[in-house]
Amino acid sequence: MASQEQATTEQQISQSTAAASTNEDQSISSQTHCVTQSTQESISSVTEKPAEPTNPRLAAITAKKATLEATLASLQSRRSALVAEAKLPSGLDMPADWTEEQRTKQALASANEVIKEHIAHLHRYNEIKDIGQGLVGLIADKRGVRVSEVMTDYDMSEKD
Fold this sequence. Notes:
Blueprint: H1 2-47, H2 56-85, H3 100-143, H4 147-153
């Protein structure tokens, strides 16, 4: 009888150990599931687009930033296209072995030279125009009339 009781006791201990083991496994499984779900929520919150800001000023600034970024991208692509079309001052194409930086520097230098040339022409035009207006003023003084009458006599407008 002692061996039967010992066998029964061993079975009960085995069953209680198995039950405890099963409960621990379920607990660990539950904790793992919670951690996994929490991790997935964190990942999805990072990968999803952020919610639209509720502050109207922040929304306006965000929209303005997006507009400025689009404008910047457009200007950069246009600049690249213009640099690709640029030629040397002699009219020849830029060498193919030049880097993008060298091409950009040369294109900007050529553009600056053209701008300086235009400015020089504008200075010369303004000097000539000032001399012409001075002469028209002298004629008006000599005749004793207004400058606009002299300009009309010579078929000149205010834009000339």
